[in-house]
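Exercise 7. Predict the joint structure of the components listed below.
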Amino acid sequence: MAMIDIQGLSVTFRSKGHEVRAVEDVSLSVAAQESYGLVGESGSGKSTILRAICGLAPVSAGRILIDGKPLPQGRAFSRQVQMVFQDPYASLHPRHTIDRTLSEPLAIHGLPGSDAKVVQALQDVGLPPAFRFRYPHQLSGGQRQRVAIARALMLEPKILLLDEPTSALDASVQAEVLNLLNRLRAERGLTFLMVSHDLAVIDHMCDRVLVMQHGRAVEELARADLANARMQTGYARSLFEASADRLMETK
Amino acid sequence: MSPLLEVQNLRVTFDTETGPVEAVRGVSFSLGRERLGIVGESGSGKTMTGRSVLRLIRPPGRIQADRMVFDGHDLMTAGEREMRALRGKRIGMVMQDPKYSLNPVMNVGDQLTEGLRRRDGLGRADARAKALAALEAVQIRNPERVLTAYPHELSGGMGQRVMIAMMLIPEPDLLIADEPTSALDVTVQAEVLSILDRLVRDRGMGLIFISHDLRLVARFCDRVLVMYKGKIVEEIAAGRLMQAQHPYTQGLLNCLPRIGGSRAALPVLDRSGGWAQEGTQ
Amino acid sequence: MTSLPARQGWRGWLTDPNPRSRRQARLGQAWLAWLRIRRNGLAMLGLAIVGLLLLTALLAPLIAPHDPVVQDLSRRLQPPGTPGFLLGTDDFGRDILSRIIWGSRVTLYIIALVAVTAPVLGLMIGTVSGYFGGWVDAVLMRLTDIFMAFPRLILALALVAVLGPGIFNAVLAIALTAWPPYARVARAETLTVRNSDYIAAVRLQGASHLRIIAGHIVPMCLPSVIIRVTLDMAGVILIAAGLGFLGLGVQPPMPEWGQMISAGRKFLFEQWWIPTMPGLAIFLVSLGFNLLGDGLRDVLDPRSAPK
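Solution:
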């Protein structure tokens, strides 16, 4: 059964009389423990889909099922789905220590054993325990993104929504964070829904990918089709060709 | 032929509460009428190197160099007046995000013609004609409409083209482009690069192209400087970048995921080598 | 703490890059802020003046040379410099220096009460308004507009007229007229913060509105409000003095600076020192708070903080 099942999703933003259709009639389905990618250029609506799942964007049509059931509300939702944001400089509260950031989800849900869990969470994402009482500005971008990943995993969700988790990071740090995400997915059987503009990152991380343009789904590709340039649509092909320097060089 | 720009032993130091921090530590290079790429990760000092050439480092930052000469002008001893005459007119600079580089309350036409009318004393009609020509040169299809637009009405790619057009109006001999395409989509990125490329070839302009993206620089530039922690660790012809010798350059190349590559864990940059330790605080 | 290297001492403890507890982390940040404000000479001058006010108020019974209320008509209207009466005496023969020293207690009392009431009210209204938006925002902001539309002193006057003169009513009147600017500041800060990723993240974790506002939004608004409060303190002192001057604040014979000026104004030409000395005290304290506020802005405002 599909872990995430989206049918005919439309998202419409209304502001000052005019409507902006950010997502139009998109359907997709992600199996349990699968890693699914959304790729497209800015304004293609790929991040909006993630926000719609989280209830951070207004859904105007369609339905979203998680694990076969309609979106759970409130706290039940947060124990199933969590999100990692694009910019690690903006996604951690600047005046909270790492300890507070990580223990907050436990406090919200009234879960015990906060101390041990925070130490364990830091270790899981490869941060030294000495970082526990640091503030975000005392960490590098990659370390912050590790904290953000640790925070998303505090409630042990089944699904992780990843919104360009490495696009703000340096190449060498990107590799470390991608490795970390892959390791955590394998260890915990997580389902990933990942947004990126970088086809190489998507190819490395995802089993299937949906190409989007102007809020619409253009084409769904399996990983093998992407690597072998078996696209059906012109747009997916042009996107692929613009990323030609990210191909595995054939020697 | 003497080089357009020559820099020897450039140092940029910031005095902070915890003591001086060196952002650039002895960088030397020379530039002809070519495309020079400077690559490095954040904190490598690549942006500071670019800004130093224009002496755009604010206190508490300090610039020191044994020699920094642009086309016969000594940039180290030049007065503020001489620097102002060089900035924009002889040396242009394009920044990463056009949102912060364009004046939000002035329309594009006024921003493009301001310099022409004030500095070169051109009439309204002449200045406008030049601005239109510059917008056409950066492949903007309806330049009349863009002239009357405000920066927030432009898309990212359009804004970046306007920035480039603005820098090109005084026909500089040297353009410093700091991550000019990082905020843009891949398809737009290709267009902006081809515009820059044509300008170097047609006008014989020198270009310093600062980027974090090794593959982009390899594809686009003639020569590449790889920077790490304020130092140049390797200088290499762009075409040979994939055969780089330095462990840092190799590490950076290897840690990139590739379409069709293996899904095994990506090789991680090994910072335990002697090159990474040297001179760190 | 035995694990600390002895040579670093408490300074090393404060600047430890890896604090061992939340308290140490917080104190470390405060220490860095203190280092930053210490480099600002004018802010330190402001801090010194405010510190002097605190000390004066605290030690008033010890340092005041005379009783501030006991009258001695044989010594009335002595000029400054008279032996035993450094700043002269007023028309009832009371020592002006002693009255100013005791009056600092009243000033401090007013400042403290206003500082703990108006900003808290403003912060609550502003953050709630900015966070929820929609009709909540509309109602609360129109209410703020109404309070802002009245001239502060006139509104304070009206309130005191209704409630009756007295120091507590004066403070209440000032607090009720002082909150709207804080609500505005807090709302503006909230609007920039509420759509940020870290608020979205905590919302995704299922946090309640109360938790988000109190734990995540208020800390971001606090610096701007603190700066604003410090800068407004001069105005509060002046309004308190104004109410005293008009006879609606502190009642005689209790010494209060504004009321001292009021009582002394009929002697302005012949015995200039009677209204001038408390005037100077008001000026000095207002200046102190303004300088401190400017310095705090450099330290606390995230927009001007060095990267």
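Discussion. Chain C has one domain: 40-300.
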